[in-house]
Amino acid sequence: MASSKSNDRSSHSSEHSGVQDQPQRKASSVAKKPMPSVAPFVFAAGDPQEGNLATPINNSAFTRWFINQLPAYRQGVSPFQRGLQVGLSHGFWLLGPFVALGPLRDTNLALFAGLGATIGLVGIATLAIAVYAESAPLPPIATLTTPKPPTDLGVPQGWRLLARGFWFGGTSGAFFATVLLLIFTF
Fold first, then answer.
1. Could you list the residue ranges that cross the membrane (predicted)?
2. What confidence category does residue 92 fall into, taking pLDDT thresholds of 50, 70 and 90?
3. 3-class SS of residue 43
4. Helix count (H) and strand count (E) of the chain?
5. N or C: which end of the chain has fewer CB within 10 A?
6. C-beta pairs of 44-47 under 8 Å, 24+ apart in sequence
């Protein structure tokens, strides 16, 4: 038994001695690429914890121009006009999916069922905007793409006006789309 322990020790020590006897590998000299002088992603505010990156997409002149032309960020527009423009577009395009994919899509009532569903969804969205207005929202924060956010949406009255404009625009857009579909398809 003593001999088996000594054999175990000798085999164990030979395993370790084999590892020690191996020559160390030298680090291969790999040609390193030079770092670009301008990084494609930088922190917009300089603070990595903020999470606002300046990328080639959001930092381009076209992207900033496009976003600042949207009704939510355009300068010189009242909250009611902002809501009206956003509501018109939403009411106009929401009608199509309700007409084409709704449960009454194969009947003569598809257009009017879609109109009712669109007005219902615009009403729900208007209610959501009105509830948000009552929650005393914080003023918008300036970002890389929107350096001058509208200040009128920093108070509840601005959001109330936006909700009224959204309701009026959404229902008007849905009725306009309905009239166009009545004229051109039926």
1. 109-133, 165-184
2. very high
3. strand
4. 5, 2
5. N
6. 44/143, 44/144
Cross-strand bridge partners of residue 43? 53
The number of angstroms, rounded, from the C-alpha of 38 to the middle of its chain's C-alpha atoms is: 26
Question: Residue 25 contacts by C-beta under 8 Å, 6 or more apart in sequence?
Answer: none
State pTM to two decimals.
0.71
Are the C-beta atoms of residues 86 and 71 closer than 8 Å to each other? yes
Query: Which residues, in sequence order, are CB contacts of 36 under 8 Å at separation 6+?
Result: none
**Who contacts 81 (Cβ-Cβ below 8 Å, separation ≥6)?**
71, 165
* Long-range contacts at 119-124 (CB < 8 A, ≥ 24 apart): 119/91, 119/170, 119/171, 119/174, 121/94, 122/87, 122/90, 122/91, 122/94, 122/166, 122/167, 122/170, 122/171, 122/174, 123/167
pLDDT at 109 over 60: yes
What is the phi/psi pair of residue 43, to 5°? Answer: -80, 125
| Closest residue by Cα to residue 157 from 83, 71, 69, 76 | 83
State residue 150 phi and psi, 5-degree precision: -65, 130
